Amino acid sequence: MARAAIQGRLGDRLRWRTAEVEDRRTESGTATTLVLSVPDWPGHLAGQHVDVRLTAEDGYSTQRSYSIASVPDGEHLELTVQRIEDGEVSPYLVDTLLVGGLVEIRGPVGGWFVWQPEQAEPVLLVAGGSGIVPLMSMIRTRSSIGSRVPFRLLYSVRDPADRLYADELRKGSPGLDMTYVYTRVTPDGWPRPAGRVEPDDLARHGWPPDFEPTCYVCGPTGFVEKAAAYLVLLGHSPDRVRTERFG
């Protein structure tokens, strides 16, 4: 009985569903949020992702994985997609797919890189570029339920124009501390020179290891490997450092 129930849930998540674009929001010069309506959507946890499949008229099909940016909200979910110039899927999603357009969605996927409301420990979020997307779902979920769990966000981007959700993050949320690390160009008067995230950044803007925070690190593979290694070097237990990478 239990096995049949588990297979049923997994089968439901492996089923492709047709999603309609209800709205689009420009997040930066290269990134767009797609607001999707997905009938019979089973719901998701903050941090999970979905598979998106596109099929051409000649039957050619391709798929990619994208993190969910929104809070659980019935049959609605949001995906923020960063255009990859030589990509096969992202240019279509960012530049061509309009409101009313259809895509196929499968998921949600992932059970490790998630934040759930019953977690009471402090949280450190470390994002590189579009790695902010699943972390934004965690921030929004925390805010939507009125959680008092303290969050800290360290967000690494090349320059100010690359920041996603800049206006929303600027407004802030009680109990959420955040800082940017710019790797190439900083705003005028920014106190830190441009450069990649270093252990000192994580020590200064993260939590002390003895607070036993759960650390979520998401971004390009090289960024994630270094940031995770730095956290362990600083004394964080490896089993409290959860990573999600791409590219």
* Content of β-strand: 25-35%
Q: What does the main sheet amount to? A: 6 strands, antiparallel
In angstroms, what separates the terminal alpha carbons? 40 Å
| Order of strands in the sheet with most strands | 4-3-6-1-2-5
Low-confidence stretches: none
The portion of residues assigned to helices is 10-25%
How many helices? The count is: 6
How many strand elements? Answer: 11
Structural class, please?
alpha/beta
What is the H-and-E element order? HEEEEEHEEHEHEHEHE
Mean pLDDT: 94
Tell the overall outline: globular
Task: Describe this structure as you would to a colleague.
- There is one protein chain.
- The protein has 247 residues and is an alpha/beta fold.
- The protein has six helices and eleven strands.
- A six-stranded antiparallel β-sheet has the order 4-3-6-1-2-5. Strands 9-8-7-10-11 form a five-stranded parallel β-sheet, with helices on both faces.
- Strand 7 (123-128), helix 3 and strand 8 form a beta-alpha-beta unit.
